[in-house]
Amino acid sequence: MADGQVEEQIVSLVDVLEEDEELEEEASAVLAGSDSDHCSYPQGYVKRQAVYACSTCTPRGGEAAGVCLACSYKCHEGHHLYELYTKRNFRCDCGNKKFTDLQCKLFPEKEEVNSQNKYSHNFFGVYCTCSRPYPDPDDQVEDEMIQCVVCEDWLHGRHLGSEVPDCVELQEMICEACMNKNLFLWTYAAHLAVPGTDAQQKEETEADKSNTNKEEKDDDVVEPSCKRSREEAEPSCRLKELQALDQKRVQSGAVFWPSGWRSKLCTCITCKESLSEAGVSFLSDESDTVLAYENKGKTNEQTARGNDPLMSALDNLNRVQQLEIIHGYNDMKTELKDFLQRFAAEGKVVTPDDIRQFFEQQQSRKRQRVDAGGFFST
Fold it and tell me: Is the whole-model pTM more than 0.85?
């Protein structure tokens, strides 16, 4: 085999390993922030964790329920599960009164219901305003799903009522329904949100009018000095200041927010109380974001894993050994992919026993394989 061919295959293996590492990081972003061995119920309403819904135990038409990562492995093996990504302030339901025929194996001493949990149609495997499953076998349109940071539903990009901006993975989205439930957000949107084409034009027009009116008022009105002194002594409300500017934005469609926008929300006592009453206090918490949770999961996984010995060991092997590894790795990767696709097609969770059985079969096949000549470098 020519040297050029050998080097090309070696680079290919490195690329594959790096790609696999990226996939592992994506999984770690969601799963490493959750405990895979212990039910999260004793922790109460966890700030953010991976949540699953079991259609085998709680089918559509019944009560919605969600289970933690560990219970999805230990208590619902072989069941049909919906992966709901992450949910905030959620407490594991596994084995409570919503599960008539199942007792939690990890923490059976649960209250009958978790009254503070919030549920949506996601728990029955449908998403967006169109209430369709994902992936949708009847949908031929390639479209991304984006999660609203308030209701946490996933919506198709084409059903948001607004243009999806570039670098959307670094932004947060609030759907139109949640914006209209919390009208004060439109004031912030006019100043803080990522502008759409139509919205930007509207903003610029209204801003010009506002500045003109403000200049005219400043020429005509002189405030008493005592009034200004009292106002300066009192804590200012950022929301009222923005409302006073009277800068408008078209109030329709989903709104996208840039990184760090939460830190610019008003934190005065009145606004904090309003956020609490509306049930959206989490908006003032930057650590509530999915991105913060994902980064925590990646960091935890990298700390636990340390340096990858496979990548460092590869450079210390001769070419024959490298080619043997390439051959075996590619075979294993293909077979593992086929193995996992069967679980995905049936909606089943892959358990440690399933993985152990797979590698036992691999080892058995390796012992039975007859090497007809191996690889030689020329």
Answer: no
